[in-house]
Amino acid sequence: MTDCLFCRIRDGEVPAEIIYKDDDCIAFKDIHPKAPVHFLVIPRRHIENLFDVAESDVELLGRIQLAIPQIAKSQGLDSGFRTVLNTGPGGYQEVYHMHYHVLGGGQFTGFN
Ligand code: 5GP
Ligand code: ZN
């Protein structure tokens, strides 16, 4: 069993409000939303952060970035959204499984 929280969410061992799944990624609501709509998109594969991305991940990340606007629209964010990707202690990353934050639907807190 992994001790990575987001791997455990991926594997259904920790509950989360999952809003989207495909072969590359999973999206679920952030437990402490900083905007009216705030969800996280993770690659299924455990990648710690952008420092851990390899050349072989380029297509995977491209496909995830193609999925993000579709997921955002499915959550009502037709007029746009903010995407945040924290990397390492200098980026105040808390969970070391790479994740895109997607925020929208009104005022944000904490990402200004
Ligand atoms: P980071 O600071 O690593 O970029 O962001 C981690 C995010 O994960 C935070 O916004 C935090 O609220 C969210 N988070 C932490 N633990 C959980 C959890 O158990 N479930 C969900 N759904 N989100 C979590
Ligand atoms: Zn993980």
Could you explain how this protein is built, in words?
With 112 residues, this protein is α+β, with helices and mostly antiparallel strands. The chain has a single domain (5-104), classed as HIT family, subunit A, CATH 3.30.428. The protein is 21% helix and 21% strand. It has two helices and five strands, in the order αβββαββ. It has helices spanning 5-10, 58-74; strands spanning 18-21, 25-29, 37-43, 82-84, 100-104. Strands 1-2-3-5-4 form a five-stranded antiparallel β-sheet, covered by helices on one side. Strand 2 (25-29) and strand 3 form a beta hairpin. The mean pLDDT is 96. Residues 4, 6-7, 46, 97 line the site of zinc ion.
Short structural summary:
By secondary structure, the chain is of the alpha+beta class.
Key phrases:
about 110 residues; alpha+beta; HIT family, subunit A; about 20% helix; about 20% strand; binds guanosine-5'-monophosphate; binds zinc ion
Instruction: Report strand %.
Output: 15-25%
The rounded Rg comes to 13 Å
Number of domains: 1
The unreliable regions are none
User: Which series of helices and strands comes N to C?
Assistant: HEEEHEE
Class derived from helix and strand content: alpha+beta
Proportion of residues in helical segments: 10-25%
Averaging pLDDT over every residue, what do you get?
96
What is the H level of CATH, i.e. the homologous superfamily?
Answer: HIT-like
The number of distinct β-strands equals 5
Q: Can you list the ligands bound to this structure?
A: guanosine-5'-monophosphate, zinc ion
